[in-house]
Amino acid sequence: MKKLSLTLVFAMLMLMASPSLIAQGQGKGKDKSEQSKEKKGNKPGKEKSAEEEDDEDAEDKMKEKGTKADSMKKEKKQKEVKAMPDSAQGNAYGKTKGELSGKEFGQLRSEEAKQKAATKHAELENEIEKSEKAVKASEEKIAQAEARLEEVKSKGEVSEEEISKKEEAIAKAKQKIQELKEKIKTQKTAIGKE
User: Fold this and answer.
1) Are 190 and 121 in contact (CB under 8 A)?
2) 20 and 62 in contact (C-beta within 8 Å)?
3) DSSP character for 25?
4) I need a surface site. Which of 1, 12, 58, 61 has the fewest CB within 10 A?
5) Which residue blocks in 29-159 are alpha helix, DSSP H?
């Protein structure tokens, strides 16, 4: 969203600035001889022609547009300066070290990082243990469901369609448990527990 708004502002500035850029290039093509003729033709007693008045009006308008563009550029810069602290990407760890020296501050930071890594490692181990317990509980439920299904099959109380549906549900549950086991295995290798 931020990039979109910045591109829109940039596009608007370009559209506003383009007429002023075109107008600036119009006066450069005149030769010195033409300019001297114009100076001689504009004697103090004569009135200005309609073309000259139109040119002056156009120049005034261009100057106004230029000042508008300049003010918009200044506003944009001010917005960027205000937005800088929010959009800064770096870490300013050393700015708030207080009375600590560089070495002491570095050692303190490394201890904090080690503690953070240790707590994260412990949390991951706890998560793995919970997942393993959930897998074991699910396997027990599946075993019980299979035993009940075999019992129902032997008695012949349920139709073949219902039996096949239950077998499919058990197969899906086994497949999900196998996927969970694979995830747990990859998590264990990630933390180096195996």
Assistant:
1) no
2) yes
3) T
4) 1
5) 32-41, 50-87, 102-155
Task: Fill in the DSSP letter of residue 90.
Answer: S
Which one, of 105, 88, 84, 85, lies nearest residue 96 by Cα? 105
Residue 134 lies in a domain: yes
Listed residue (175, 171, 177) closest to 134, CA to CA: 177
Domains in the chain: how many in total?
Answer: 1
* 166 within domain boundaries: yes
Which domain does 108 fall in, by range? 101-191
* Gap between the Cα atoms of 28 and 147, Å rounded: 97
Residue with tokens 């998590």: 187
Asked if residue 147 belongs to a domain, the reply is: yes
How many whole angstroms separate alpha carbon 96 and alpha carbon 114? Answer: 20
Q: Distance between CA 36 and CA 38 in Å, rounded?
A: 5
Say if 53 falls within a structural domain. Answer: no
Q: How far apart are CA 53 and CA 60, in angstroms?
A: 11
Q: What is the pLDDT along the chain (194 residues), one digit of tens a residue?
A: 777 777 877 777 777 776 665 656 555 555 555 555 555 555 444 455 655 666 677 667 666 666 666 777 777 667 665 555 555 566 767 667 777 788 888 888 899 999 999 999 899 889 889 999 999 999 999 999 889 888 888 888 778 888 889 899 999 999 999 999 999 888 888 877 65
